[in-house]
Amino acid sequence: MSRSSESTVHTVSTVTVSYSELKESNIDLSGKIEQGFGPNGLGILSVKDVPGYSDLRQNLLRLAPRLAGLPEEVKRELEDAHSRYNFGWSHGKEKLESGKLDMLKGSFYANPLQDVPTSNSFEIQRYPWYCGSNIWPRNSLPELEGAFKALGNLMFEVGLMVAYHCDQYVSKDLNQHEKQSLEKILLGSRCHKGRLLYYFPAQDSTTHDNDSISSWCGWHTDHGSLTGLTRAIFSRNSVEVPCPDSGAGLYIQTRSGQIVKVVYGEDEIAYQIGETTAILSRGSLCATPHCVRAPQGEEARGLERSTFALFMQPDWDQKLTFPKEVTSHEDISLSDNVLTFGEYTEKLLNIYYDTKP
Ligand SMILES: O=C(O)CCC(=O)C(=O)O
Ligand SMILES: [Fe+2]
């Protein structure tokens, strides 16, 4: 899926809900949820006026270039091959759409809610990508742990409120026996994962496939339930700068197949739907295909991008029954059409990573 750079960029703003509305359980937000996440929605919704958010975002995102700039041997100590790089530092381990290794970005993964999600050795062996323990750079970047946990926790709290209103919306068209509360699933889970992302600057214009919309991050849908996203910060040598190319940033493919650039305020948290929510809501809430386009042109030289994603996910033991109407990965055979979330993740890791633990 790619479009030439000459084609016009359609820019669309997210549907926005204010924090004060969201925290009220008796306000009916099903109209907004439908507009954002329903069958004709863009698949993204943003929350504004979240108390304390702006500082926590700045505090964490400014650490991304510093983490990426640590000496290679220090970053290597923060790697965890056993969890298939799903804890700690990861660079050049994941495969892109093209099948090539992704050298364009570095990521740091941790569960912002629990350092040690389980002490059961069978579980740790079975699902190391979720049941392992966090790895913090306590000597090389001691501020990271606190900043990561503070932002992750806040985005989780707000995400739970979004989930509550999603449940209210979905309950309107599901039979009583089919109801599975997204809010409850997320509250009881030990699988939430934060990802601090750092996109390396293009050293020369041949580094990035500039004609492609997905030149910085390939097309995909997140496989969890709900993803919280900060607005990215662009910087040069760690100094924040406005992005010189209005075509750069997050793109979404709409339900009708149109590709649009999505914008939201820097003080808003955006939420997207992942595949597991589409599965559990039997298609009432649709997953959101998205990618990231790199800036183009001379001014893009040396430009780096930092952002944070919070993947809110069900517990590893959560059973997923794949309904026929939800199209999932064609490359996953669902002979018995029921998988735990941990097993489903394993199948995806087999597609996106070469190495087995
Ligand atoms: O960089 C971004 O804005 C999005 C990253 C993303 O989609 C992901 O990590 O799943
Ligand atoms: Fe994503």
UniProtKB/TrEMBL annotation:
PROSITE patterns recorded: FE2OG_OXY
InterPro entries the UniProt entry points to: IPNS-like_sf, Oxoglu/Fe-dep_dioxygenase_dom
Transmembrane portions of the chain: none
Superkingdom of this protein's organism: Eukaryota
SUPFAM superfamilies documented for this protein: Clavaminate synthase-like (SSF51197)
Residue ranges of domain Fe2OG dioxygenase in the record: 191-314
GO MF term set: metal ion binding; oxidoreductase activity
UniProt keyword list: Iron, Metal-binding, Oxidoreductase
Protein family per UniProt: Belongs to the iron/ascorbate-dependent oxidoreductase family.
Protein name, as recorded: Fe2OG dioxygenase domain-containing protein
